[in-house]
Design goal:
GO terms for molecular function: glutathione transferase activity. The protein is α+β, with helices and mostly antiparallel strands and 199 residues long. The chain contains 7 helices and 4 strands; from the N terminus they run αβαβαββαααα. α2 (36-45) links the parallel β1 and β2 (49-54).
Length: 199
């Protein structure tokens, strides 16, 4: 067979499939805030992504009309724009095998994520709110932390040597937990002393 008779269909399919792979574009301000956990999930996912950080009000005003709810973070993927932190994390997790090994695991991931996110939101309010709201969020966060650590410790012990919250491999629930623990240690370096927690 002459070279001109060869079927290059497979080669071109591989080339164009690779070169045209959709890229996730995460858009947020140049700070951790509500996008940091999304960045962590993207970093673990192995998927191609861009971390687009806005540094001025003018940049935000320009991008705001694209945001479904007029807020950031937003995620652009394959011609569509998505919003809301947990929805973005869950979407990425499903695309990258971080959402559990089966339907039961996926539900458990959601369960642990929502539980941890309550404390994370309180911490955000504590850091960024003002006046009475700031004080109330601080008190709630301080009261929540011991309960979170106790329940996480109990869960990891139940896993019997498995270092993951759900199933036998890392999931986005572990990443959200890591994000929470990271904040705890920043606020109080000895927060995890004596705890059965793998970080």
């Amino acid at each position: 067979m002459h070279s001109t008779d060869r079927d290059y269909t497979h080669f071109f399919k591989l080339f164009f499939d690779h070169s045209m792979t959709p890229v996730f574009k995460l858009i947020y301000f140049d700070l951790p805030g509500r996008a940091e956990v999304v960045r962590l999930v993207l970093a673990q996912s192995g998927l191609p992504w861009e971390d687009i950080r806005l540094s001025s009000k003018e940049e935000f005003d320009a991008i705001k009309p694209k945001a479904p709810f007029g807020q950031l973070p937003i995620l652009e993927f394959n011609g569509r724009t998505y919003a809301q932190t947990l929805s973005l994390c869950r979407f990425i997790a499903r695309k990258s095998n971080l959402a559990g090994e089966n339907e039961s695991n996926a539900t458990e991931c959601d369960m642990w994520v929502e539980y941890c996110m309550e404390a994370i939101v309180d911490n955000l309010k504590k850091d960024h709110a003002e006046g009475d709201e700031k004080e109330a969020a601080g008190r709630k966060f301080e009261a929540t932390v011991p309960d979170v650590l106790e329940r996480v410790t109990k869960r990891l012990k139940e896993q019997k040597g498995n270092s993951f919250l759900v199933g036998r491999r890392i999931s986005w629930a572990d990443i959200v937990l890591f994000h929470l623990l990271e904040w705890l240690v920043e606020d109080k370096p000895d927060a995890l002393d004596g705890m059965f927690v793998v970080v």
